[in-house]
């Protein structure tokens, strides 16, 4: 079932930095490759949907650099929409809905994550890592 996610939630939301893990750049390590790994978690908590987006940077070799940034989003369900459309929250795969139908919501998290990664890497290595501002499917 495709939800109209713009109607499913109240307009107001809370965005928060959930987690930041950083391992100092090892200048003696010769970097052979870089990979971005994205994760998306969703949890229903009462009348809220909590969404957490995490982007990790993995380098070869691993000791070269470690960075992981997680931002969260707290959305409040609009029960008038849910009731009107007879939507059972327990039957919805919100992770899948957000990936395929909720780019405007994901962009709130991904944009902040990309900017923070660029700022952190610019300070530590003088060359910022500019990650793509899209959800990268595993």
Can you offer a commentary on this structure?
- It is a single chain.
- The protein has helices at residues 5-8, 79-84, 94-101, 103-125; strands at residues 9-23, 33-45, 48-60, 66-77.
- The protein is α+β, with helices and mostly antiparallel strands and 138 residues long.
- It has a 4-stranded antiparallel sheet with strand order 1-4-3-2.
- A hairpin with a 5-residue loop joins strand 3 and strand 4 (66-77).
- The radius of gyration is 17 Å and the shape is elongated.
- It starts with a helix and ends in a 13-residue tail after the last helix.
Defining key terms:
alpha+beta, four-stranded antiparallel β-sheet, single chain, 138 residues
Number of strands: 4
Secondary structure class reads: alpha+beta
The proportion of strand residues reads 35-45%
Strand/helix succession: HEEEEHHH
- Helix count equals 4
Residue share in helix = 25-40%
What is the molecular shape? Answer: elongated
Give the strand order, joined by hyphens, for the main sheet.
1-4-3-2
- Give the termini distance in whole angstroms: 23 Å
Write down the Rg: 17 Å
For the largest beta-sheet, the strand count, sense and barrel status come to: 4 strands, antiparallel
On the 0 to 100 scale, the average pLDDT is 90
* Unreliable stretches covering 5 or more consecutive residues: none
Explain the layout of strands and helices.
Layout: H1 5-8, E1 9-23, E2 33-45, E3 48-60, E4 66-77, H2 79-84, H3 94-101, H4 103-125
Antiparallel strand pairs: 1-4, 2-3, 3-4
